[in-house]
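Example record used in the benchmark description.
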Amino acid sequence: MISYIRGRLAAIEESKAVVDVGGVGYGIFMPGRVIAKLPQTGMEVTIHTFLNVKEDSMQLFGFLSKDDLTVFKQVITVSGIGPKGGLSILSQLSADDLRFAVFSNDVKAISASQGIGKKTAEKLILELKDKLHLEDALNHGQEDQEAGEASLAGDIQQDAAAALTALGYGSAEALRAVRQVPVTPDTKVEDILKQALKYMV
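Model output (structure tokens):
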């Protein structure tokens, strides 16, 4: 198993990146959304990878974050969705957007992915609801904070999301709104609620 590849970004093609590691070029298929975030060619890059082995080929699929890779692995466990289908879904939606779509039963958002029909999207929602966790979406984007601060921010956001749910809003909708509110060490639950409600209108 190849967990990740670190090397010089040699080329960016339509659906894959080529990474030079010690003179060997690894072609790694990536979602378009992720390819757009790659650095300039010639720069060093680390790509978290999944190796798909078939009788007649071996293909690498990659992501810049471990979270994207984890969600990708869960998506391809759904019958009828292979690695190319998983790549299509994560080109259309980020890992967190997919979590929100699954928990809000947003078939339309998932089926907007190329090659993914309504029935496949419905099957994905059904099979991944017990595997994906909405709370994970709250903890992303906080990597630059101290661990204690990030944990506190996550707790406050979850409290705010719970309050919105108690008011009758859907859990996915509430978490999506709460996540858009900037959190500082001085932020209170009430502050998040006031701001989050603006995103709910």
